[in-house]
Amino acid sequence: MPFLPLLILIGAVLFLCFVTVKQGSVAVITVFGKYRRILTPGLNFRIPLIEQIYKRISIQNKSVELGFAATTIDQANVNFTAMVLFSVLNNEENTIKSVAFKFVDERNFMQALVRSVEGSIRAFVATKKQSEILSLRREIVEAVKENMDKTLEEWGYHLIDLQVNDIAFDEEVMKSMSKVVASSNLRAAAENEGQALLITKTKAAEAEGNAIKIAALAEKEAAQLRGQGIALFREEVAKGMSHAAKLMADSNLDASLILFSMWTEAVKNFAEQGKGNVIFLDGSTEGMERTMKQMMALSNMNVANAASGQK
Questions:
Q1: pLDDT in tens, 171-185
Q2: What is the DSSP letter of 50?
């Protein structure tokens, strides 16, 4: 029985000599407040009452959500919602010492991390206009990572990713941006409509001009054909009259009979082909004689002109 307390004491000491560290974390050991060593995941041995576990550090990925506002160069307030994904840089001794002793506690580290990320985003946004912000998500992430990587490495951490989930302006700014977009769309629609109308009118004018040109060419050709037809008609009439006059001369007949025949044929044609038009002709013997004399005189004058032209 005297050995029972001793066995209990020995069992308690042995129990305190072994420490279990969970997977994905490490334990920092100190001796009288001074850093001594690191315990890796699994069952570890320590000197009880002398070696103390100062802090258990997770080396797994961690995330934190941020919500803050920034101001653009043209004084527009932008509200951001972001997610920061980070982790301990590695499980090397110097890195673990930085993580364990750089900050008083986890809360102070998270405060420094959040404020640093917010400051980097605000500094970037302050150099941009409100119209540019919505299209600069990737540039914002790259700028923050570039500014934060070196600082986080000094703290023993690594910024894995920054996701800007939401970018929203104040209500008044959103209304004004909507008006700008709407007016731009209306202007683009008006320009497109004007271009379409201009093209339509241009094509119509070209078609009308081509139609006029074609009609003019057709009229020109028709006029030429009409002129040629009239000339051929007159030529044939002249040949017929010349032949008839020659025959009558050979038969010792008066050539005025030809003119008389032409006059009677003309009167007959007027009567048969007239469509409502009134033509007054002198049908008396004196009128016929007068007409015959005029036609004879005109015929003699044409013959004289033809003779002089041959000379």
A1: 665 556 556 666 666
A2: T
